[in-house]
Every structure is written in structure tokens, then in C-alpha cells.
UniProtKB/TrEMBL annotation:
The chain crosses the membrane at residues 21-41, 47-72, 93-118, 124-142, 154-180, 200-220, 241-264, 284-311, 336-355, 361-380, 392-408, 414-432. GO terms for cellular component: plasma membrane. Its main location: membrane. The lineage of its organism: Bacteria, Bacillati, Actinomycetota, Actinomycetes, Micrococcales. It comes from Agromyces protaetiae. Keywords: Cell membrane, Membrane, Transmembrane, Transmembrane helix. This is APC family permease. GO terms for molecular function: transmembrane transporter activity.
Length: 439
């Protein structure tokens, strides 16, 4: 196993306790998705939205178990990149790391633009998005404890607002109850579009909704990517993953129930701002601006956790020369991978300036599923002494990732394959160059 703390320079410090680790996990999971995922998920599954949530939760539970088990054995930076490299080989680790770094860098740009869309007028969207990236990068560069404190504050505010939304949903379901229809059988129109009317995709639609919901609350891996900065990692990381996943699942389940009861599947599927529509249905118009601000803050929380996770994965890949070695440099003052955080932040700002990626990052979903497939496959190879979950659960997690990949719309699959093909070419060229230099 590679040395996570090279003697030639400063190392990461174990400063992150359970509370901070849980906050970072929650910031990843209760981000923009909790405000935006419901409409496309309902468009796919219709009245079977809760079934889609259940499928997503089970696959995510299996993935979380595998991740926690591996993190206890390999408490280093990099998450599934490190696990894949150690258990399955360099290529498997590289694909997990490449998919995460490239896909989530695009996701960071999307989160910055989403936050700006909620918090600023349209003409100020890009400048505000750039400012958000700079501010979040400054927090990450100040140290992991600052990142955890900021995540804690954001999560506390967002959860408080979501509690208001839930209460409004209960009122709306009483004042104007909506019967939740069963999803009809797939019709001929289902073959011609990704989403048509709610529920027309049948079982396939349930899987598509599960995929969307899985991506929305699968951020518990962010805790594992910070493995070298967690106090008592073998104990703290599995607990942080379990707690953050449990809270996020409870929040999503509660919101799914009141959204279906208060709006109904068809209205939910057509809504651009379902949580705001829910509070309006309850007659709580005053809460709509509060929901909008909370959505912006949630996007910033997801950006904060994402940037930290990408920086640590880039650090791990830089150590192994899978990415430029300069990315492995660590600040002697704040003990963070400052070069990696700065490079990723500059890349995100560049993406924000030249493109709006909010609707064009399907390959990120593909990359997330590859990431977790590698993690589950790595967990399957662990001996009995290292196991914390049954081997069959890791197998279910791996199979679930493949099923959800198959349910992705084909443009996402094609884009994902293209990104991984570029990564394979880059690595093959780099390996050939090293062989020539060593010959």
C-alpha cells in the first residue's frame, strides 16, 4: 500500500471528528437534489415514486455498507480510487478516480450555477457563481475543520427549512388532499421520449426514478474521500456514513410522502419548484422565498463537500502519478492539498464562465455508478476478518449499480463512455512515456 504521508513534506492532519464528518456527508446528500429531483423522478415513476425511492435507498444502503467497510481498512484520501487500486488493481482504481474527478468537477460547476440561479437575478448569475466557487475554495483552503463548520451551519439552516416544507405538506394534504394514482402500464409513447406523462415508463420508469434519487443522496462517499483527516477513522467513518445516510433517507422519504399527498404525481412531475409549490398549496406563501434561499444554500453546501472530495481524490491520484504529482502537495500551514483545491477551483470557474452545465452533466451520473461499482467490487474481495456487512450485500450493490447504468438515458451512457475512453487514452500514453523514459 502506498504511503499516505510522505516524509518529504507535510501531511494531512486528523482533525475531523464525528459531528463534522456527518455534516460533510449531509451537505453532500441534502444539496440541490432535494429541491430539484422530485419532478423528473415523478415524471418517470408517477404514483410509484415511493417504490423508486425504496429501490434507490436499498442500492445506496448496499453501497454505503461497502464504502464504510473499505474505509475502516483503508483510512486514506481518495475513497473508491484507493480501494479499487489496493484491491482490484491500478486500472480499476484509475477509472474510479477519473470518473469522480472529471464528473464531479462538472457537477461543481452545475452546483455553482444552481446556487446562483436561486440567489441572484439572471443577469448576475455567472458572476455570482464564480464568487461562490471562490468563497467555497477559500473555506476549503482554510482547513478541514473550517469546511466542517461551514457544512454544519448550512445543513442546520437547510434542515430547518425542510421541516417547514414538511409541515406545509401535511397542511396541504389535509386542506387539498390528492389521490395518488397507480402508474399505468407502458404505452407506445414511452418508447419515443425519456419522460412523457408520469408513470408511462412502468418498471423502467421506476428504475429511472431510482437512478435520479440514488444520485441525489449518494454523497456519503465524501466522508470516505477525507479518510486521512478523520479522527479514529476505523470507528468514526463507518458511523458517520451510517448516521448521515440514515438522516438523509428519512428526509427524502418524508418529503416524498407529503409531495405526493399535497401535489399529486402529475402536478409534481410538471413542477419547476415542487417544494415552493407545496408551501403555496398550503397557503404559506411567505415560505416560498425562504425555500428559494435554502435551495441556494443547499447547493453551496454540496459544492463545499464536492470540492473537498475532489481535492483529496486528486491528492491520492497525484501521489500515485495517475495525475500530475504537483496535486499531491500539502500546505504546511493548513494541512490541506492546496494545489489540488486551487487547480480544481480554477477548472470549475472556467466551466462556469464558458458553459451552463446544469442540464448537461449526464456523464457525472455514469461516473458515480462506476465509482460505486468499483467500491462494491473491491469490498467483495475483502477477507472475513475485515467484513462488516455480508458479502451478498456488496454483490447486490455492484449489481444495482449496473442495473441503474442500464436505466440511464442513452446520451448519458454515451457521454460517460466517451469520458472514460479519454481517461484510458491519457493513462495509456502516460504509461508508455514512463516506460520509454525508464528504458
Amino acid at each position: 500500500m502506498s504511503d499516505p504521508s510522505p516524509a518529504s513534506g507535510p501531511a494531512l492532519d486528523r482533525r475531523l471528528h464525528l459531528g463534522g464528518a456527518v455534516a460533510i456527508g449531509l451537505a453532500s446528500m441534502i444539496g440541490a437534489g432535494v429541491f430539484a429531483v422530485w419532478a423528473p423522478a415523478a415524471a418517470a415513476a408517477g404514483g410509484l415514486l415511493l417504490v423508486g425511492l425504496l429501490v434507490a435507498a436499498f442500492v445506496a444502503f448496499a453501497n454505503a455498507g461497502s464504502t464504510a467497510q473499505l474505509a475502516a481498512r483503508y483510512p486514506e484520501s481518495g475513497g473508491a480510487y484507493r480501494y479499487g487500486r489496493e484491491r482490484l488493481g491500478a486500472w480499476s482504481g484509475f477509472f474510479a478516480g477519473w470518473g469522480f474527478v472529471v464528473g464531479k468537477t462538472a457537477s461543481c460547476a452545475a452546483m455553482a450555477m444552481t446556487a446562483a440561479a436561486y440567489l441572484a437575478p439572471a443577469e448576475w448569475m455567472r458572476p455570482v457563481a464564480v464568487a461562490a466557487v471562490v468563497a467555497v475554495a477559500a473555506i476549503d483552503l482554510a482547513g478541514v475543520t473550517r469546511t466542517a463548520r461551514a457544512a454544519t451551519a448550512i445543513v442546520a439552516i437547510v434542515l430547518a427549512v425542510l421541516a417547514i416544507v414538511f409541515a406545509a405538506g401535511v397542511v396541504a394534504s389535509v386542506v387539498s388532499p390528492v389521490a395518488i394514482p397507480d402508474a399505468p402500464a407502458p404505452g407506445p409513447e414511452a418508447s419515443g421520449a425519456f419522460f412523457s406523462r408520469p408513470g408511462t415508463l412502468g418498471a423502467y420508469g421506476v428504475l429511472q426514478s431510482a437512478g435520479l434519487l440514488f444520485f441525489a443522496f449518494a454523497g456519503y462517499a465524501r466522508v470516505a474521500t477525507l479518510g486521512e483527516e478523520v479522527v479514529e477513522p476505523a470507528r468514526t467513518i463507518p458511523r458517520a456514513i451510517a448516521i448521515s445516510f440514515g438522516i438523509a433517507l428519512a428526509v427524502y422519504a418524508a418529503l416524498a410522502v407529503v409531495l405526493l399527498a399535497g401535489l399529486g404525481a402529475e402536478r409534481l412531475a410538471a413542477s419547476d419548484a415542487p417544494l415552493a409549490d407545496l408551501v403555496a398549496t398550503a397557503g404559506w406563501g411567505w415560505a416560498a422565498p425562504v425555500v428559494q434561499v435554502a435551495a441556494g444554500l443547499a447547493s453551496l453546501g454540496a459544492l463545499l463537500a464536492l470540492l473537498a472530495g475532489i481535492g483529496r481524490t486528486s491528492l491520492a491520484m497525484g501521489r500515485d502519478r495517475e495525475l500530475p504529482a504537483a496535486l499531491a502537495r500539502i500546505s504546511s500551514r493548513t494541512h490541506v492539498p492546496h494545489v489540488a483545491v486551487i487547480v480544481v477551483s480554477v477548472a470549475v470557474v472556467a466551466l462556469v464562465v464558458v458553459a451552463d452545465l446544469r442540464g448537461a452533466i449526464g456523464f457525472s451520473s455514469f461516473g458515480v455508478l462506476v465509482y460505486y461499482f468499483v467500491a462494491n467490487s473491491a469490498a467483495l474481495t475483502q477477507p472475513r476478518a475485515e467484513r462488516r456487512i455480508p458479502r451478498w450485500l456488496s454483490a447486490v450493490g455492484a449489481i444495482g449499480c449496473l442495473v441503474l447504468v442500464a436505466a440511464l438515458p442513452w446520451p448519458s451512457v454515451v457521454a460517460g463512455l466517451a469520458v472514460f475512453a479519454v481517461g484510458a487514452l491519457v493513462r495509456a500514453v502516460a504509461l508508455a512515456r514512463r516506460r520509454r523514459l525508464s528504458a
